[in-house]
Amino acid sequence: MASAFYTINTIQPGHRTANKTFNNPNSPFLGSSRKLRLVPFSNTIQSAASVRRQSTIVAVSSSDVVKKKKTNSSFSHSDLLITREEGLELFEDMVLGRGFEDMCAQMYYRGKMFGFVHLYNGQEAVSTGFIKLLTKEDSVVSTYRDHVHALSKGVPARQVMSELFGKTTGCCRGQGGSMHMFSKEFNVLGGFAFIGEGIPVATGAAFTSKYRREVLKEADSDHVTLAFFGDGTCNNGQFFECLNMAALWKLPIVFVVENNLWAIGMSHLRATSDPEIWKKGPAFGMPGVHVDGMDVLKVREVAKEAIGRARRGEGPTLIECETYRFRGHSLADPDELRDPVEKSHYATRDPITALKKYMFEHNLAKEDEFKAIEKKIEEMMEDAVEFADASPLPPRPQLLENVFADPKGFGIGPDGRYRCEDPKFTQGTAHV
Amino acid sequence: MAVVFQAIGAATALSSANVFDSKRIQFSYGRSLSERKASICAVRSDGMLYSGSSPRGRKPEPLISNAVATKAEGSTASAASKPGHELLLYEALREGLEEEMARDPTVCVIGEDVGHYGGSYKVTRGLAEKYGDLRVLDTPIAENSFTGMAIGAAMTGLRPIVEGMNMGFLLLAFNQISNNCGMLHYTSGGQFTIPVVIRGPGGVGRQLGAEHSQRLESYFQSIPGIQLVACSTPYNAKGLMKAAIRSENPVILFEHVLLYNLKERIPDEEYVLNLEEAEMVRPGEHVTILTYSRMRYHVMQATKMLVNKGYDPEVIDIRSLKPFDLYTIGNSVKKTHRVLIVEECMRTGGIGASLTAAINENFHDYLDAPIVCLSSQDVPTPYAGTLEEWTVVQPPQIVTAVEQLCQLQ
Lengths: 432, 409
Hints:
heterodimer, A: alpha/beta, six-stranded mixed sheet, two-stranded antiparallel sheet, 9% strand, B: alpha/beta, seven-stranded mixed sheet, five-stranded mixed sheet, 12 helices, 18 strands, disordered N terminus
């Protein structure tokens, strides 16, 4: 079962020799287009997931990016990484993510939503590649760039859009906002504004899964938790503390690093002593995997392995997905620091285009099917915006409603009654 | 009927060096003074509590200056008719914890050295053997992360109790406590509850140094969405522990390093106290003294002196630091018209400051004099014994304050 990971760039705990393809410790691992270098393919590595970044200005055709598993040129179905249905599902999910984020940008500039809004354009392969393999009971923990994680997990676009508009029909009743997407039904555990804050929460959810199995003796409890976070977070203490605890107790969690090379304006290379994040996994006793995060099929392969590992109780995995965000850090970010050459390079590696091309080449679907899906998503977006627009704003009594799960926590008032029993308290007319 | 405290200074750094031993008579058995024996538990340098060869009739150690006398009364709310059983405060906490763990399998303990070591103050001793290593989880030294882990576990269905080895260590967990513990129920629109209990010893001990002598009640009190309670006797320790575990809200339970060896007789039958209520320690007429945790004992010692001088103070242990029980406090203010707050928190922004504001806002018309608040000095707790003594409020100061208050008309 470890074989799939072996062919990808990993260092298993105990194995000290690194893969041949990156044997130059002096040159930086990744980064802006100025620093990209040409890496020849080693003949021993044939797997689809072993592609490294190519040199600067050459546009990498997306068909090179996904290699077939066998070397023969005839495409039989057993060679394919996905079935037709799976492919269309992945395509639809990525188009949903992209369409939603584009609609968010529009709505923001029209003054329908405010504050900090962080868009996921360009990174859809990571969310789709991982989350579409989960069941409803598995949990997802994300950061402030969480709209698409919530959508991939199943939260209806209407609810997410309402939440962004601050309406009471939002998934968090309008109380969370862009950076705090929660869904109990679909087990989305947030949405956290401070980076690194969600990783312990994800570790806790994985702990519950193990606790249920071993202490409460619920034999079918094999829920997996995915923790998504970025490259900047990988320098934060909570990241390392949780890698330690998860590996120590073999928790069913997968740590997914969405390395888009930039933490607002801080390049990953300027912030990190050893930029190869996947190497930090084996230091804590778990496999560290590196994968091309612009390619949904490769991400999916790696994800299958890691989620399977976690489900079987073999412990956590650290997966670094090299990806890129097409927009700025947030809608308020002018995005001046990133090299336009780098941006255009990645624009050619758009994951949606790549998947479409793969499916064309393997005759999995036709153009009109894709068009139908795109139209469906467009209509869904229009519907979501209409729904959000028409939804009511939260009324005054909602202000104090969810502060405490047990509202007795507001205490006993001077008249001897609990404050929460006083209707004027929630109406806002009583003295708090 | 007075009870005598024996205080012993010990040299250990880790454990609560000083030990108080109290026996409070709660039930009307007519036990005379001569029947009562002083039981002393000494803490040795290995940090282990031992009772010596015979639990009773041990030679008493010499009394030191801040021995405290409490007035015994039957004021504890649910005085049972059965004899009950005697135990120390940390045992009472453990009893409460154990009862809740037996009752609900999702209750678990997470903290440093809670499992095999039994807890740095032995509150969880024996639980890991009984319930296993996963239910009484020994964590690595990563407060922020394991508190966050407890919060994640609470969101997904467990009821964890996080033990801070010393409450001061929870400063490292402040990110998780403030951002996630208090907030997630709200920001998720009520979808997730966080029924977590965060507990641990705090307060000024016996020369433990500045960082181990912190009073963090005030740091946490502004966080929306959490409740703060402070226990002070074995009876309320067990009751509050059980109530905190059963509560759906996140609760921070403050214990005090010097109170772990208080002995009291508590009822055999199960009882759960109310998290939001204050405790009437001694009814009176002249002045309301509001206090909590260790200062309760300084207040009771001062009360003995005041009673001898002819004053009749009403002493209330507020127990619930957030929210305040304005009903009990209010009724008292309406009766006595004078308020003295005695706390161990710092002067600036402490619990006393909030309480002063709350009383002024709600009961201003009933006050005959400005509220007096005696708090610790705004200094990092010094190591030297004399300096440490002056950091904290001492009984003579309380006596003086009451005298001054009662003279104002």
